[in-house]
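re: that chain from earlier
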Amino acid sequence: MSEQPIYLDYNATTPVDDQVLQAMLPYFKESFGNASSVQHAYGWDAEEAVNMARDQVGILIGVKPQNLIFTSGATEAINLGIRGAVASNESKNHIITCCSEHKAVLDTCDYLKSIGVEITILDINADGLIDLAELQAAIQENTLMVCVMSANNETGVLQEMDLISQICEENEILLFSDITQAVGKIPQNLQESNIDIAAFSSHKLYGPKGVGALYVNDLSTIAPMVYGGGHEKGLRSGTLNVPGIVGFGKACEVAGHLLNSEMDRLKKLRDFLESELLQLGGIQINGQKTNRLSHVSNVSFQDIDGSRLIRSLKGIAVSQGSACNSSVIEPSHVLKGMGISDQLAFSSLRISLGRFTSEEEVRKAIQIIRSVIEQQRMQLL
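^ sequence. v structure.
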């Protein structure tokens, strides 16, 4: 059996933590009840497990557990949060977002535009940030919501959410944020930051795939998108994925315990990686001049054939952008939004470190990348 490549694509997904797996296992067989079966012990046990998980998730992001709606993942949560807000408000019909959002947000906005909702898409600057003056100028009397992700999934750039929330609050506009990449990576207190609606997913923080959550500060601000049983306070019908939710809760608990130590450890590894790669010359770190997640590097290489780059890096698992876009051969919309040329965007790598990344793996990855870049540059001479 061939040796597995070094995994450096933690922004795409993470392995399930052993503690999470152990917490989930009983709910597949011994405690297999339906959380909505309120007439016997199997259902009560499942309901109690879901309530405990809701508490664990709420603690990590600083919200009341009753304001959390469990979903199948961040994409469903994004749809419920944005479309649900539009459906529940007849007087306002305008949404502001930005060009570097995840496709789950941009595609949802495209759909809403097709049914008559007015959409404004803000540009970003070379550092990946929106212009707050442009945001203020885009606000109209009929603006319902601003949709801005707190941490970009391709570059790790952190938007100025405190200032954005202040603008929204002053104009009585809802603030929606895709916090998928931020949860478990940086401290979150959504109530203090005045984010009204937020979506995120379990599999980005060492929990199972197929489960996520939507935080809604005021549940009356959204309408359901799925009907059939009135689960999750009537906002998301469907039998709850009890094992997945239990794993999600445990993953949040573990992430909370490790948050600060992992931020420091991964920043040291990330900074070492970048300093070594920069010695190759002809390299830029996208978003380097602003606040970023401590474990993410988006690196562009000059004088490289982008079509060959990923195929040549056989010893490591990295990506050229979001996993949700990997089947589409086009340059990253995030990097293009930052003013990076198509050619350079195609010659870029997203390297994301994680809980199980070791210093030895980073050193090996540097050697592999350096060898491939030097070889390809020699061939182009």
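The chain is about 40% helix and 15% strand.
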